[in-house]
Amino acid sequence: MEPIIQVSNVWFKYPGEDPSVEYFVLRDINLSIGIGEYVAIIGPNGSGKSTLARMFNGLLLPNQGEIKIAGLATTTLENLWDIRKTVGMVFQNPDNQIVATTVRDDVAFGLENLGVPRSEMQKRISRALEAVGLSGMEESAPHYLSGGQKQRLSIAGILAMQPKVVVFDEATSMLDPQGRKEVLNLIASLHQSGTTVVHITHSAEEAFLAKRILVIAKGQIQLDLPRDELYKQSINLEKWGLEVPLPVQLHQRLIKRGIPLTDHVKSTEDLVMQIWKLLSKT
Amino acid sequence: MNQLVIGQYVPGRSLIHQLDPRAKLAFVFAYMILVFFANNIASYGLLLFFSACTIYLSQIPLRIFSASLKPILFLILVMILFHLFLTKGGQVLFHFSFLTIYEEGVRQAVFISLRLILLVLTASLLTFTTSPMDLTDGLENMLHPFTRFGLPAHEFALMMSIALRFIPTIWDETEKIKKAQMARGADFESGHIFRRVKSYIPVLIPLFISAFRRAEDLALAMEARCYRGGINRTKLRELHFSTKDLGLVIIFAFLVLGICLLRE
């Protein structure tokens, strides 16, 4: 099947920067994401992960190379609206992406832009609000919502436009633990319902919720692995200035202490199982 | 915060709330002009009676209206004093050394303050009974014919609604920055007026920077949601002229007739 996101040989630098190689934010990125995948992109600050995300819906265009969304190149101006309809994007700051003065009007904003007829709009709005658990708050002012609720409202605004892909650009980084949990649960249920999810984050813990993880650093993709395989070598994450998930650290330390655990632990659950087995033996 | 947001919307289901925002806007505009034609007790009486009726019909507590008058109280007071002592004409009512109050002065003082009160009450009634979204929608709709002459009606309305959306957000931020600066020893309370104004500079600069960042973020988010100006846009909110709105035209005709008959 044709990938929904196809990135080939993409180079990018912000305008005004020196044209030499070290100023390129992205250097020769190749990547393809299939329909229904749940991909996390992790990388330290300034690694180019957000820049890459913004290329997925044509907010930024590559200097070299090409990005195709469902077969449409982002560099062709006529494709831009179809591409933005296909790839929805949730940003970092919950306050700065709400346009309207009520919840309902904000969800409507994207639909109004698309020229969706009014009767259809009402159906889609109530469905989207239900999906994010904000039904009954249609008339509320965004100002009175919590951080998590604001971010869920932004997601509803995107869902109403019925995108095939939703990109979360560090969408949880400004939320409190409660709000973060709400949004992460919503991401999981989106994936369940068949939407392609790309989650950009600098938290390894969040990244490990995805099925496939890309590590990006210094403008290049360093690793592109299924979760289970990355788990085994996630001690390497430190190399790129990323935090190593706590269970991985624990695992490594236990081995160092001489506790007989196998090297190939695939996930936290796997680790817990092994420890259980070990404990019941003694 | 209530003090700052001029003309907050007071949700309700009264007859006045239900009127079409365009009808209300047009009526208020015409009514405000009409207020300037009143020139005696009878004509002012008619307008006051009408305003009292609309306030009663709006089912909004009187104290909210009186709160809306508070900011202009000082202005009214100045106007009254101004007219009392400076307007000449008619009988002398009061004389004490250099102070002389004429009959005409009292008349003008009463009428001018009544006029101001009427204007503010009418404007408040409009904003109290019409939600900001309806108001901007109505405005956009009414300005639409002028787009032919290059007036960006849609952009203007969107700008207004974004401004309304961000007033509370930026207000909160101001408070936060103020507290942060106070924690570093900033003093907003003491000193003469210039000093106090100057002490707000460390609040305003971060506020401006953050507002620009917000604007950039918002523009990006809007673009990501396929915003491309007013072309090919549909609207969730629909405006309907009803018979009630037609009633406003008739009422206005009667008011004009009444003023014409009553004024001198």
Automatic annotation (TrEMBL), chain A:
Mention one GO molecular function.
ATP binding
Q: What is this protein called?
A: Energy-coupling factor transporter ATPase
Q: Where in the cell is it found?
A: Cell membrane
GO cellular component term, pick one: ATP-binding cassette (ABC) transporter complex
Keyword Cell membrane in the entry? The reply is yes
Where in the numbering of this chain does the ABC transporter domain appear? 5-243
Any single Pfam family the record assigns to this protein: ABC_tran
Q: Which species is listed as the source?
A: Thermoflavimicrobium daqui
The similarity comment for this entry is: Belongs to the ABC transporter superfamily.
Q: Assign the protein's first listed, main location to one coarse class.
A: membrane
Keyword terms of this UniProt record: ATP-binding, Cell membrane, Membrane, Nucleotide-binding, Translocase, Transport
InterPro entries reported in the protein's UniProt record: AAA+_ATPase (IPR003593), ABC_transporter-like_ATP-bd (IPR003439), ABC_transporter-like_CS (IPR017871), ABC_transpr_CbiO/EcfA_su (IPR015856), ECF_ABC_transporter_ATP-bd (IPR050095), EcfA_1 (IPR030947), P-loop_NTPase (IPR027417)
Domain of life per record: Bacteria
Membrane topology field: Peripheral membrane protein
Point out the signal peptide segment: none
From TrEMBL, chain B:
Q: Where are the transmembrane segments?
A: 28-57, 69-86, 106-128, 246-262
How does this protein sit in the membrane? Multi-pass membrane protein
Q: Which InterPro entries match?
A: ABC/ECF_trnsptr_transmembrane (IPR003339), ECF_transporter_component (IPR051611), EcfT (IPR024919)
Q: Which Pfam families match?
A: CbiQ (PF02361)
**Entry's localization field:** Cell membrane
- Molecular-function annotations in GO: transmembrane transporter activity
Chief location category: membrane
Which UniProt keyword terms apply here? Answer: Cell membrane, Membrane, Transmembrane, Transmembrane helix, Transport
Q: What GO cellular component is one of the record's annotations? A: plasma membrane
User: What is stated as this protein's family in its record?
Assistant: Belongs to the energy-coupling factor EcfT family.
User: Its biological function?
Assistant: Transmembrane (T) component of an energy-coupling factor (ECF) ABC-transporter complex. Unlike classic ABC transporters this ECF transporter provides the energy necessary to transport a number of different substrates.
Assembly and partners?
Answer: Forms a stable energy-coupling factor (ECF) transporter complex composed of 2 membrane-embedded substrate-binding proteins (S component), 2 ATP-binding proteins (A component) and 2 transmembrane proteins (T component).
Q: What is this protein called?
A: Energy-coupling factor transporter transmembrane protein EcfT
